[in-house]
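look at this record:
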Amino acid sequence: MSGMISMKRVWELQAEKEKPQISKNKAIEIAMKKTSEIMGTKIMAKITPLATEPPTDARLRWSPGYMRKIWETEIPTLFRGKKTTVKIDAETGEVVGWYNPLAAEIADEVLIDKETAINLAKTKVEIPSDAKLKEVTFTSHGQVGFRCLVKWEHEVKGVPIEGDFIQVRINPKTKEVISISKTWSEVK
């Protein structure tokens, strides 16, 4: 077993082979800007002075889920030691995913309908013209309570593009977006 290498490490080594277009410092800058948008500038003003070094780090890795190299950043919050995660395409600088722990509080009731959830999701992520709404679901997740998932899939001329999607998770009690994940290919 000691001579074996994990798939995660293989992907990390793959990511390190080629220098990305977006530098680590640029990825951190993009992540800080996105975190300000997600959490609001008042919270960010409290976070930034607390750190003696940059309040985040970025790891370059190959993501099979995103099918590309990404910078994964973690930015500390003042909420029980939780961190906001922002994922950035290492070649384009596009934010392809994020997670806001402040929105992930317990939701013991659903105070949002499907149409409102769709409209809220659209305010947080650009939905391409070739996206097809796949589902809007409300599910219970044990101790964290209810979650809403709004998901679009990529479809070109009636043909689904395998692996391409945009999904937005929403706290149905507070009506805040918890996370966004986006994998989208340019089809010509």
Remarks:
- The CA atoms of residues 32 and 75 lie 8 Å apart.
- The chain has four helices and eight strands.
- Helices lie at 7-17, 24-39, 41-47, 114-124.
- Strands lie at 57-63, 68-76, 83-89, 95-99, 131-140, 146-156, 159-171, 176-183.
